[in-house]
């Protein structure tokens, strides 16, 4: 099995790699941003540098992934809460549009496999989205929420296009998520106190993938099928417009 896992330097991505490395039948294609942060065993893994906020990096990554031919599974795991380096457009591109672009460009490679599975790591944060503001008025948190909702919808879209796809809210985990955010210490403390171990979450995701134990198109929260978000017309258009503003145009 060839599996792509994005954002493998830390947290859930790293735990997923450790989990899949125990499976001799799996080749892992992992993406990272900074070589200094990589601390993984070299076993059965191909590592590619990709900053998902860069169109150029995403396009280069696609060329490299295509060379593997058949891709059985992709776990879109990377995400950021942003910092001062990100404007809303760049952050939405990183958290959503880069993923949509990657998957649609390697669609045929995924379709070649029997499993043809795309897992989008979402969040409970996808709720209560306000649609009044223009994209440039949105905070990083608003953008994060919107991107996680878009990922849930994207899984549904992919399932209608003939792939298998689910979105998963892994629940709060003891990771360094938000480490570049100005409130990083409080986020870290909060996750440290109430978060689950990413290793346990990775094991559950591994079992879902290996046993094909999922219902196509669904949104899972804490590993149970959750009510699919209902969207009014205004919110649907808002998401569509945001994607159009931020996506790669060619
Ligand atoms: N932790 C939680 O409580 C929680 C709750 C709900 C959902 N989630 C979701 O779970 C997923 C994994 O997060 P985590 O908790 O494991 O946090 P994490 O340790 O911060 O992992 C995030 C990964 O994304 C990568 N990333 C960030 N910005 C990137 C960029 N511009 N280009 C490429 N890669 C980039 C990070 O790479 P660097 O190391 O280079 O920054 C890291 O490998 C995310 O999708 C997150 O939204 C987490």
Task: Give a concise summary.
The chain is an alpha/beta fold and 250 residues long. It has eight helices and eight strands, in the order βαββαβααβαβααββα. It has a single domain (2-246), classed as NAD(P)-binding Rossmann-like Domain (Rossmann fold), CATH 3.40.50.720.
Largest beta sheet: strand ordering: 3-2-1-4-5-6-7-8
CATH class: Alpha Beta
CATH superfamily: NAD(P)-binding Rossmann-like Domain
Runs in which pLDDT lies below 50 for 5 or more consecutive residues are none
Distance between the termini: 31 Å
* Bound small-molecule species: NADP nicotinamide-adenine-dinucleotide phosphate
What class do helices, strands and sheet pairing give? alpha/beta
Gross morphology = globular
Domains (count): 1
Helix content: 40-55%
- How large is the count of helical segments? 8
Question: How much strand content do the residues show?
Answer: 5-15%
Task: Name the helix and strand elements from N-terminus to C-terminus, one letter apiece.
Answer: EHEEHEHHEHEHHEEH
Sheet having the most strands: 8 strands, mixed
Question: How many strands?
Answer: 8
Would you give the CATH topology? Rossmann fold
Q: Quick check: average pLDDT?
A: 95
């Amino acid at each position: 099995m060839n599996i792509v896992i994005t954002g493998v330097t830390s947290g859930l991505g790293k735990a997923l790699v450790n989990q899949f490395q125990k499976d001799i039948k799996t080749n892992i294609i992992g993406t990272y941003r900074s070589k200094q942060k990589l601390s993984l065993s070299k076993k059965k893994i191909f590592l590619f540098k990709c900053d998902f906020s860069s169109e150029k990096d995403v396009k280069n990554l696609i060329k490299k992934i295509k060379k593997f031919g058949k891709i059985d599974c992709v776990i879109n795991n990377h995400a950021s809460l942003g910092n001062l380096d990100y404007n809303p457009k760049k952050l939405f591109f990183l958290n959503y549009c880069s993923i949509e672009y990657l998957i649609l460009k390697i669609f045929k490679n995924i379709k070649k496999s029997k499993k043809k599975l795309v897992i989008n790591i979402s969040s409970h944060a996808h709720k209560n989205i306000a649609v009044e503001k223009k994209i440039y008025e949105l905070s990083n948190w608003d953008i994060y929420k919107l991107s996680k909702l878009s990922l849930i919808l994207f899984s549904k879209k992919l399932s209608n296009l003939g792939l298998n796809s689910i979105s998963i809210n892994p629940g709060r985990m003891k990771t360094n998520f938000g480490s570049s955010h100005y409130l990083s210490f409080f986020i870290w403390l909060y996750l440290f106190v109430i978060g689950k171990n990413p290793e346990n979450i990775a094991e559950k995701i591994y079992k879902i993938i290996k046993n094909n134990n999922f219902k196509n198109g669904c949104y899972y929260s804490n590993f149970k099928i959750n009510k699919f978000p209902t969207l009014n017309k205004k919110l649907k258009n808002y998401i569509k417009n945001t994607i159009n503003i931020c996506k790669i145009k060619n």
